[in-house]
Design goal:
This protein is mainly alpha-helical. Helix content is about 50%, strand content about 5%. The two termini are about 25 Å apart.
């Protein structure tokens, strides 16, 4: 989600210039892909390292990605993440999930973490579905936009994608339907 969420919108907004360049015609409109390039560079090259946060090669802290999902309206994602970390990360609280106190001391029970995760899914029913949506929508929208360039394999199934259910589609569809033509030129709009 973090690496390609803005690619589809940027491609749609620059569709005319990119199409012109792909057809071999020079465009008078400058094309600035700096922001997309920075995000994709981070996606490809980021790793854990000592560097300033401005360095595109420095990985973000996990909670930063979770906060972006929170901004994207995934309900209770931060609380869900904190509880899930308590179960899965090596710490004193995660050890609590593998033993049961008994009269003689403790008994190992490796099924308690499964029960705890099931309980989390029950307590936060929308988190996983919404998180999956935020993971799948950006690549689907990017593929849908790439169809308009005519240089990529077409996936007919994507025509059935109801973009109106995806908030980002409200920016993409008008940008794709906008055709930058000289005054008096015949405007041809292709369906997406």
């Amino acid at each position: 989600m973090d690496g390609i969420r803005n690619v589809s919108t940027a491609l749609a907004e620059n569709h005319a210039s990119i199409s012109s360049a792909l057809s071999g015609q020079l465009s008078t409109k400058a094309l600035d892909c700096t922001e997309i390039e920075r995000i994709l560079d981070h996606f490809v090259f980021a790793k854990w390292m000592r560097a300033s946060k401005a360095d595109v090669r420095k990985a973000k802290d996990n909670i930063e990605y979770v906060r972006e999902l929170d901004l994207g309206k995934v309900p209770k994602i931060i609380e869900f993440y904190q509880k899930l970390c308590g179960i899965t990360h090596p710490s004193s609280s995660s050890i609590d999930y593998i033993y049961v106190p008994i009269s003689e001391g403790f008994k190992l029970d490796f099924n308690r973490d499964k029960t705890a995760i099931d309980e989390l899914c029950h307590l936060f029913p929308m988190v996983l579905a919404r998180s999956l949506m935020y993971a799948c929508n950006p690549p689907l929208l990017t593929l849908r936009v790439l169809h308009r360039f005519g240089h990529h394999p077409r996936l007919p199934e994507l025509k059935k994608l109801n973009g109106k259910e995806i908030p980002e589609w409200a920016k993409i569809e008008p940008a794709l339907n906008r055709y930058l033509a000289p005054p008096g030129a015949r405007v041809i709009r292709r369906r997406t």
